[in-house]
Design brief:
Length: 484
């Protein structure tokens, strides 16, 4: 017997598989029964099988360090996270509601600015946003959609409810790992898939391709689509190549494309130039076009903004979409939903303090040791302060940073993130904190992945789940008990 749940469960932390009475949650019942029959040697054998599969498939990610970029095998835990389908359906509706409102917000900012004129969102927050692109004013992309792909980070608190931690609207990554996690788990735990009604995730790339087709320029019925990558040294290059391969489209770098005098984009091929209609770009705004943004960029394509403004090519996500990725704007999303949709948010935000507000800033500065402080426009877990786990020197550093640039910081309470059973050293099983990143697509229609990428803080007690900070990952099962 591997598991002893009486030593595992905790009444103070919500666990994804085990309830406060140390019993399996209904959606996890069969999985737990199955794993209880597994000997330590069998468990270790399955773990080794997963590691071998990851090496065979070449699933990797890159970590940026002072010593250079390090390519690492994808860290994966074989015990899945399980969520009841009935709870997921409401979460899915909440995610669609959120992205719909955010796209209406972005479209408004670059056109009429009604929400600013009505004082719902302070104008100075937008005008001082690092990701507000004045070059995009007056543009109206197909279907009014700017953020076609969104990765929203969810966490579950002690009350068992999901909360939105942040919205990733620039170039969100991780969906390929969600798909690979499922492929690996099917190899490692094949018997369970025969008995459980686990909702599929492998329709993502066909949905992505359908969305990209739906935003093609006016009059283009069979668009040529490409994935634009910064290249092999980017931390998400594996994902860029994976998605292009799965969709059957070309993976290109900036030097593979050019824009002619008529503002049309072409791809260089040995058979001659081929017109490109839709670009799924995985390059940040400031690097995509040296004519408009950074002159020294060698990653982008000169003239790409001219082509986009002329409706000769669709860019996904659209330039300027990152204005809603600003963590300061995050605090206003409930108001944004009410303003555009006249609805209450179906998923709540985490309580957020804006350091640009004098009263809230004073509270943050007086309680840094209790709070999580984040810079407004960073990602990957960089530049954060996790107060309860910080040294006095780190707290002093953030006190100074906030006083010097209050607009650039927000703070949130330290939540009691949910846990899930995770294999740790010597094949012991302990609870580790985790989050969830579902992916939402919006073009002509809106689609949400069934579940998403579960990221796990592999260090005991840690709340930082990012892979670049040592985090791991699990497969996420949405189990339909009604059809089991």
């Amino acid at each position: 017997m591997v598991f002893d749940w009486s030593n595992y469960c905790s009444p103070t932390i919500y666990d994804e598989l085990i309830d406060a009475n140390c019993s399996p949650r209904p959606a996890a019942q069969r999985l737990i029964s199955y794993m209880e029959q597994m000997s330590p040697d069998e468990l270790n054998s399955r773990k080794q099988m997963a590691d071998a599969t990851i090496r065979e498939l070449g699933v990797s990610f890159t970590v940026y360090t002072d010593e250079g970029n390090i390519d690492r095998a994808w860290p994966f835990d074989i015990i899945p996270r399980v969520i009841d389908w009935n709870q997921w359906k409401r979460t899915e509706q909440g995610l669609k509601q959120r992205l719909t409102a955010l796209n209406m917000f972005i479209n408004d900012l670059y056109n009429d600015q009604n929400i600013l004129n009505d004082g719902v969102v302070p104008r100075d927050l937008i005008e001082n946003s690092k990701n507000f692109r004045r070059e995009c004013m007056g543009i109206k992309p197909a279907h009014g959609v700017w953020a076609h792909i969104c990765g929203t980070d969810l966490v579950r608190d002690q009350d068992g409810e999901f909360y939105v931690l942040e919205d990733n609207l620039r170039v969100p990554s991780g969906v390929s790992y969600m798909l690979e996690n499922r492929a690996i788990t099917k190899r490692v735990l094949p018997e369970v898939f025969q008995k459980e009604n686990i909702r599929p995730v492998d329709d993502y790339t066909s949905e992505l391709l359908s969305m990209l087709n739906s935003v093609a320029p006016t009059g283009v019925s069979k668009p040529t689509i490409v994935v634009l990558t910064p290249g092999i040294y980017n931390s998400a290059y594996f994902e860029h190549a994976y998605l292009a391969q799965q969709m059957g489209v070309e993976l290109v770098e900036g030097t593979d494309l050019f824009v002619d005098a008529s503002d049309t984009v072409y791809m260089r091929t040995i058979a001659g130039p081929i017109r490109v209609d839709v670009i799924y770009r995985r390059i940040d705004d400031e690097f995509i076009d040296p004519e408009v943004f950074r002159e020294d960029s060698i990653l982008g394509v000169p003239g790409l903004m001219r082509a986009w403004k002329s409706d000769k090519v669709a860019l996904v996500n659209a330039p300027g979409a990152g204005v809603a990725d600003d963590k300061v704007i995050y605090a206003y999303v409930p108001a944004i939903i009410k303003y555009y949709l006249n609805e209450e948010p179906l998923i709540n935000n985490v309580e957020t303090y804006l350091c640009s507000d004098p009263e809230q800033r004073e509270y943050v500065l007086a309680n840094l040791e209790k709070l999580v402080v984040k810079p407004a426009n960073e990602s990957g877990g960089y530049g954060m302060l996790v107060g309860p786990h910080s040294t006095p020197e780190q707290i002093a550093e953030f006190d100074q940073l906030i006083r010097e640039s209050p607009r650039n910081y927000i703070a949130q309470p330290t939540l009691s993130l949910s846990t899930a059973p995770t294999i740790v050293e010597e094949n012991a099983i302990e609870g580790r904190h985790l989050d969830l990143r579902p992916f939402i697509l919006q073009g002509k229609d809106t689609y949400v992945t069934t579940g998403g990428l579960t990221r796990v803080a592999m260090k005991k007690g840690s709340l930082v789940v990012n892979s670049s900070q040592g985090g791991g990952s699990k497969d996420t099962w949405i189990v339909d008990l009604g059809n089991a």
